[in-house]
Specification:
This protein has 298 residues and is α+β, with helices and mostly antiparallel strands. It has two domains: 4-155, MutM-like, N-terminal (N-terminal domain of MutM-like DNA repair proteins); 160-292, Helicase, Ruva Protein, domain 3 (Orthogonal Bundle), CATH 1.10.8.50. It has nine helices and 13 strands. The strands form four sheets. It has a five-stranded antiparallel β-sheet. Strands 2-3-4-9 form a four-stranded antiparallel β-sheet. Strands 10-11 form a two-stranded parallel ribbon. The chain is globular and about 55 Å long. The structure holds zinc ion. Zinc ion (ZN) binds at residues 273, 275-276, 278, 293, 295-296.
């Protein structure tokens, strides 16, 4: 599932590529993803609206539109958004920017993972935003900004891991509130800290030298500080690498992120830890796999 760095990459792309665009039409062959209204009403209400800004909390995407409406998108397991250019006189076939400009840049839209298009937003400029979603678990909601903010799943979100208000003091308060919880589970709890998932919890705890099973009450102030610093460090580095594409995630040009090339423990079970040569271990933890070095992490 895309986590904070992948979603931040998409947000940055959207603000660069479609800010100021006007939506002229919408198409979907999977209206079940649209919550709270019919496809017909969704279409009617979104037409003519301008894209003002894209933002996120944790893994959740919010696209603010003119007239006080917000488009809320959760990518879930396999969803990703692609920005394309339409070919004149053809409604569904689209080409990438690189194909149109005939540049030497590779075109990624032909890759299988980018071809599960179930929703398309058409813009006045002939650009499109296309939603590829293999498993079809993604969720789309259009409503007044205030109503979106009050959706139970949005209200339930904890502080975003990259929010400037997420200070070491705030992190400590969260740890103290959940003193019996192992740190490896706490980091994934979107109701406490939003944005970190299965991939980044392993990388953060490796960076901090802490075992995922450790209970928060047993962590010293120095250890807590290391974890906090590594949350910021790992997420920032992953954003710089445009996220992790270990499976379906792609950016808005259909390209892979590159963080999987520099990962230390995630998906590296059976391989040597690069610090100490001990074999990296994989363990089921909170229904998902966690990866760690049994020697470097205490
Ligand atoms: Zn090690």
């Amino acid at each position: 599932m895309p986590e904070l760095p992948e979603v931040q990459t998409i947000i940055d792309d959207l603000n660069k590529k479609i800010k100021g665009e006007t939506i002229v039409d919408f198409w979907s062959d999977w209206p079940k993803a649209i919550k709270g209204k019919s496809l017909e009403n969704f279409k009617k209400e979104i037409k003519g609206r301008k894209i003002l800004n894209a933002r996120r909390i944790g893994k959740n995407i919010f696209i603010d539109l003119s007239g006080g409406k917000t488009l809320y998108v959760h990518l879930k397991m396999t969803g990703h958004l692609l920005i394309k250019f339409q070919i004149p006189n053809s409604k569904l076939k689209t080409k990438s920017e690189s194909q149109i400009s005939k540049s030497k840049e590779p075109d990624f839209f032909g890759e299988r993972v980018n071809q599960y298009i179930h929703h398309i937003w058409y813009f006045k400029s002939k650009k499109t935003m296309e939603f590829s979603d293999l498993r079809k678990f993604a969720k789309i909601v259009l409503d007044d900004e205030e109503k979106i903010n009050n959706l139970p799943e949005v209200k339930a979100l904890g502080i975003d891991a990259m929010d400037p208000k997420f200070t070491f003091k705030v992190f400590n308060e969260i740890l103290d509130k959940k003193s019996k919880t192992p740190i490896g589970l706490l980091l994934m709890d979107q109701g406490l800290i939003a944005g970190v998932g299965n991939i980044y919890r392993s990388e953060i705890l490796y960076g901090a030298g802490i075992l995922p099973q450790r209970k928060n009450s047993d962590l010293s102030p120095e250890e807590r500080k290391k974890i906090y610093q590594n949350i910021l460090k790992v997420l920032k580095k992953a954003i710089k690498y445009r996220g992790t594409s270990d499976s379906d995630y792609r950016d808005t040009s259909g390209a892979k992120g590159k963080f999987q090339e520099v990962m230390k423990v995630y998906n590296r079970e059976g391989k040597k830890c690069e610090k100490c040569d001990t074999i990296v271990v994989r363990k089921k933890f909170g229904q998902r796999s966690v990866f760690f070095c049994p020697d470097c992490q205490k």
